């Protein structure tokens, strides 16, 4: 089954969004996307499953997924990150409200250096003042950076467990969209 974006295989996603190849070393296969994602999680570089999910999900869903992943490690984030997460929550929850976009845009210090700054950047990716579309990277790039930066703050012994939880959450969101 293809998701709403029509990706029947991992290769379809790689063809539709060539930027993913700049964020991943694994080569696309003809496997269904979720099978490919699970194989990445069980593979040599399981973090690539996060990258794949970030690109597989529709943009708004990917930003929400990143927000939820970071909310799961909130105790590892600074106050500024928690404030940004609250702004992202408001923005994703009410995407047509120009006030949320403006407040979030004004709250960012570029370049992002923290997990929540990356997810906030993903939430405002299409804001013309940031000129991110011209970078050649989609918002998924920032979602991926946010989640991986959040994981990097966790204790080494906890990282794979968190990574697995985050990827399964992403997979569930893809299945809901399918």
Quick overview of this protein structure:
This protein is an all-alpha fold and 178 residues long. Helix content is 63%, strand content 0%.
What does this structure look like?
The chain has 178 residues and is mostly helical. Helices cover 63% and strands 0% of the residues. It is built from ten helices and no strands. α5 runs antiparallel to α6. The radius of gyration is 15 Å and the shape is globular. It starts with 9 loop residues before the first helix and ends with a helix. The model has no long low-confidence stretch (mean pLDDT 88).
Question: Layout of SSEs?
Answer:
Elements: H1 10-16, H2 20-23, H3 33-41, H4 47-56, H5 59-71, H6 79-93, H7 98-107, H8 115-123, H9 139-152, H10 156-177
Helix pairs in contact: 3-4, 3-10, 4-5, 4-9, 4-10, 5-6, 5-8, 5-9, 5-10, 6-7, 6-8, 8-9
Keyword list:
178 residues, single chain, 0% strand, mainly alpha, globular
Task: Sum up the overall morphology in one term.
Answer: globular
**Average pLDDT figure:** 88
How far is the N terminus from the C terminus? 8 Å
Radius of gyration: 15 Å
Structural class: mainly alpha
Order of H and E elements: HHHHHHHHHH
Strand content: under 5%
Total beta strand runs: 0
Q: What about the largest sheet?
A: none
Q: What level of helicity do the residues show?
A: 55-70%
Number of helices: 10
């Amino acid at each position: 089954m293809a998701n709403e974006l029509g990706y029947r295989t991992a290769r379809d996603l790689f063809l539709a969004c060539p930027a993913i190849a700049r964020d991943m070393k694994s080569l696309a296969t003809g496997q269904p996307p979720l099978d490919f994602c699970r194989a990445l999680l069980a593979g040599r570089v399981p973090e690539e499953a996060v990258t794949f999910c970030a690109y597989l999900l529709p943009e708004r869903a990917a930003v929400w997924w990143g927000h939820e992943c970071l909310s799961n490690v909130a105790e590892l984030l600074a106050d500024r990150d928690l404030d940004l997460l609250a702004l992202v929550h408001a923005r994703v929850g009410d995407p047509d409200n120009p006030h949320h976009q403006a407040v979030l845009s004004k709250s960012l210090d570029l370049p992002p250096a923290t997990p929540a700054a990356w997810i906030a950047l993903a939430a405002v990716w299409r804001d013309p003042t940031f000129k991110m579309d011209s970078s050649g990277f989609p918002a998924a790039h920032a979602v991926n950076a946010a989640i991986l930066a959040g994981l990097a703050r966790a204790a080494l012994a906890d990282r794979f467990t968190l990574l697995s939880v985050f990827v399964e959450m992403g997979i569930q969101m893809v299945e809901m969209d399918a």
